[in-house]
Structures are given as structure tokens and as C-alpha cells.
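Colleagues,

For the teaching module next term, I've prepared a clean inverse folding example: a structure given as C-alpha cells, and then the sequence designed for it. I'd like students to try predicting residues themselves before seeing the answer, so please don't circulate the second half yet.
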């Protein structure tokens, strides 16, 4: 049975290594930092299978209102590339939002 202190120290390390699980082999230990992606997200290297992955893609940190704003810009006739440049991110992100937004819009009547 884990004591209170074990729980705290455990939480401390898991918080710092949140999402650090290898998508390929599922290893949760020995997940190293391995530079950054072009989008500025932290990249990780799995020590077990040597694969590189991104544990926390940056687009998660972008708030909903910003996505909506980007979608609005697109509906006003701006290209995804242009919107992407405006928000300093890759235009494929913008296109994906557009697709996701269209799906949400179809299910929700606004
Ligand atoms: Zn791995």
C-alpha cells in the first residue's frame, strides 16, 4: 500500500512526464526529450524502440475561440494558408479545424 508521501512523489514525476508513453511500444520509462518540431512542440525519443514522437501537439494549447476565429477568417474567403500564416502555425492545422468545425456545425444547429 502506498503511503501519502509515495503518492505525492509519484504525482510529481507523472505530471512532468505527462503523456510520455511511447505510441509504438507503449513504454512509459526512458522517454527522452529530442528537440522540437517545426511547430515548436516538444519531441520525444523512446529509448526502447528509438522512435520519435510528439507527446503534446501544440494545437491542443490553442483555445476554442481562436479556432472559431480562424474558421471565421476562412469563411470570409481567406485561404487556410493565409490564416495559418496569421496565427503562425501550419496551414494543415487550419484545414483540420475547418473539417472538425464543419462536423461540429453539422451536429449542432446554430
Ligand atoms: Zn517505443
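(Answer key — instructors only)
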Amino acid at each position: 500500500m502506498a503511503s501519502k508521501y509515495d503518492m505525492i512523489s509519484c504525482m510529481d514525476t507523472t505530471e512532468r512526464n505527462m503523456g510520455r508513453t511511447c505510441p509504438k511500444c507503449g513504454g512509459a520509462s526512458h522517454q527522452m526529450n529530442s528537440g522540437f518540431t517545426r511547430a515548436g512542440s516538444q519531441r520525444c525519443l523512446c529509448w526502447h524502440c528509438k522512435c520519435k514522437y510528439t507527446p503534446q501537439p501544440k494545437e491542443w494549447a490553442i483555445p476554442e475561440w481562436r479556432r472559431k476565429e480562424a474558421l471565421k477568417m476562412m469563411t470570409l474567403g481567406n485561404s487556410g494558408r493565409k490564416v495559418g500564416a496569421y496565427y503562425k502555425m501550419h496551414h494543415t492545422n487550419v484545414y483540420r479545424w475547418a473539417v472538425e468545425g464543419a462536423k461540429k456545425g453539422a451536429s449542432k444547429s446554430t
